[in-house]
Here is the input.
Amino acid sequence: MKAAVIVFPGSNCDRDVAVALEAAMNHPPIMVWHRDTELPPVDLVVVPGGFSYGDYLRCGAMAAHSPIMREVKAKAESGTPVLGICNGFQILTETGLLPGALIRNAGLKFICKDVFLRVETSDSPFTRKYETGSVVRLPIAHAEGNYFADTATLDRLEGEGRVAFRYVTQGGGASLDANPNGAARNIAGIFNENRRVLGLMPHPERLAEDLLGGTDGKPMFEGLVEALS
Amino acid sequence: MKAKVHITLKSGVLDPQGKAVQHALSSLGFAGVDNVRQGKFIELELAETDPAKAKSAVEQMCKGLLANTVIENYRVDLEG
Here is the structure.
């Protein structure tokens, strides 16, 4: 598998995700600068976390219009899998590759902590190494992670099985207490129509090896390598 | 020609900043303040002199970048 990681001014998880990808692929991904207009031939594009363009105007708004994102959008539309983590998720909603928006956390604060997530489906290249319904622990680090979409969009996402991850208690219950940021229906990550694009607020790359204190993020990268090699 | 763009959150979209401002106002003793909503105000200087063309151009800018129409409404006013 070949992967590209998009780097914007203000990205800060690009190297973390490159390390996680390299561990899974046995070779490093290609780092692609935001001003580039072409992607190398790859099987996966990762839009990493961070604060692209200093979160000016809205999180992800400026990055969504950068030259490379036109190319990412075209690749996604022709079926290349795209993974957007945290700021990457915000960018994917701003480009229109994923529905809805990420707004300010209900409690206003920047939240940096581990949360429990329920894997809603293993039927995707991103989640195939997880059991449907299993609970994993991943870190979140955001101030704008409160997923918003109108009721019709939320119903459609649920009906089409496009909710990928939900904030839950350790026992797996999607209660209000388990929702760190006010996200609609405890949604932490969603797929596009064909489940080839995933956006999620939690950071799988930050718990992808023992040295980091956990490996619950690792199956995502291993699953991608398995599916896309 | 100058364009003034007001961007506001759609009704139904949670505005925790507006809520915090409302709490602060009430703790300062301003009674009877309800439903505080915070938005953005953007001014643009345009070379275009035709008001209809200017308005249509700024509306395209709002749809393309300045506002996220999933969560925000916008209003364009022209001056000069």
Remarks:
- The first helix of chain B runs from residue 16 to 27.
